[in-house]
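Appendix B. Raw example, untouched.
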Amino acid sequence: MQRALSIYGADRSAIAEDGPVALGVTLARLTPEDTFDRQPLAGGGGRWHLVADLRLDNRPELADQLGIAAADLATMADSQVLLQAWERWEEATVEHIVGDFAFAVFDARERRLVLARDFMGQRPLFYARSGSRTAFATMAKGIHALGDITPAPDLERVRDYLALTNMVGPNSFFAGISRVEMGEMVTLHADGRTERRAWYDWSAERPVRFARDADYVDAFRDLFDRAVADRMRGTGSIAAHLSSGYDSTAVVASAARTLAASGGRLTAYTHVPMAGVVLDEPEGRIGNEWPVAHAVAGLYPNVEHVAVDAADRMIGDDLERQFHYFEYPALNLCNIVWGRAISRLAARDRHKVLLTGAVGNATISLAGMERLPELFRAGQWGEWFRELRAAPGYGLTPYEAARFTLAASFPRMVVDMAKRMSGRSVYRLAQFSTLRPEVAESASYKAHLDAIGFDPTYQSQKRVRDVTAIILRRLDVHGLEQKGQLGAYGIDARDPTADRRLVDFVMNIPTHLFMHRGVKKRLYQEAFGERLPPVLFTRRPKGQQAADWRPRLRAAMPRIQEELDLARRAEGVAELIDLPRLDAALAVNVTDGPSSTQVRDSHRLRLLRALSVAHFMRKTDRRNSAGTEGSAASGLE
């Protein structure tokens, strides 16, 4: 297991054995305190045995609660702090710690194993039972290395992934291997029992109230700056993604300000399209985000701004690397091209931390349009009408704002009927998914979607906080992405916009802070308006990522055809994927003329998503000897 997982951490390897129990680590030193890490750890008079893959972001607060002196804290690894927390609070520890974590505690007295992950799943954790053996690892290859379980795709998980459903239940992408879900604690008992408990309650309301709106803005800004600063605790220089959007710009501005105080510098990477190609720019979109991004970088002298065109990369170039290091099929192969190119450059430039703003649209730049149905359903008619009149400030007509309200307020069946009567389309799985119609439209699968709470029509939500929860919980791949970046490039990708303190704050403040009387993204604007250039807040086209996807696709078509020809014979591919529909898409030559929504849906979305999933299934086909290539294994880091 350790040998297989060493690609994710080779700075230190250790194992502790006690009879039939063995705990191991392969450590990557990602923070200064990791120098002092001596896992596996034992505590509680020998009762507790702990291994952890973590970064604690509230070390000072924990030290105060646990009575750890500042001088002692300076030479304590995060794992040592975690052990002391466990000795104090045991299973309640997860409610006290903040950061990215996956850990395991073996209780020698009760003969039970406790596994836990942070609320956003920023570190992965898997487990399996095979015969008399119980195994766990941060990546599935750690369990595969034992030889008890042959790599194979979990067809139910792959099916739901193709449908873009929320990832509910313990199934991983690999058959026979379970995952600890985001914000979950799993207890494995010696008698074979498995207990699963969601320790983070997304439905719990924890109201945050201040006397003035300005107090909310100040608290929000302070929380965000703390989240960014905590994620810069590392062993080397810092880099960041920078687009023309709201989230990465706020991250870069905050990081630059923090680094400037100590004379530090930040490298910001922006994807730019290939030169000399025709860009696919839908109405209201712009394919080159460099000008706005450069205006942001230009405000901070300590920011080095680097353009990344990835001109030497084609769509699909990273499929093998994706499988080996990341162990999940990527949904957006067009963005993978430039995203991985940025990681390569960051590694070349010897950066250790790469800041992102991946989920900021659900937290720091939340639009909060669901305030409209909130007002309507609460009977606050006066305020609702005032917001309708102010709708142009949100980019809507009053009629569109009213329609949005009603769409969120009535049952889905009524909303769908109204859309059909008015000649508007209703979202269906077939629009964005390549699941076979026999699967997608079956009564049993529709019942399954209802059971897991997935709405394929994407009806508007009734409350602002529900949007944040749905976006953040939908796909559990954040941890796999972090591990893959670390293994493939030696980069620790960190997302301040996913900070638990920030999420709790955003989900529990009054919703007029997000939109009010025509001011769009009000909280964001008031918090960061003085840090960012005015162009960011003017009405402008939204950035279109990977706008050069068409020439890249044409160049990659022979390889795409070859891969799909190989993959169609793999286990489960023909049963799940609508291959005739893919063949029809392959027969269409995507030109540089104006692209219709249908072309984008058929090629950029359906074709390339199916390619990614089919490749993953081919690599994990039990009948394919290549399926075990690079699939060794890894234990907890």
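End of appendix B.
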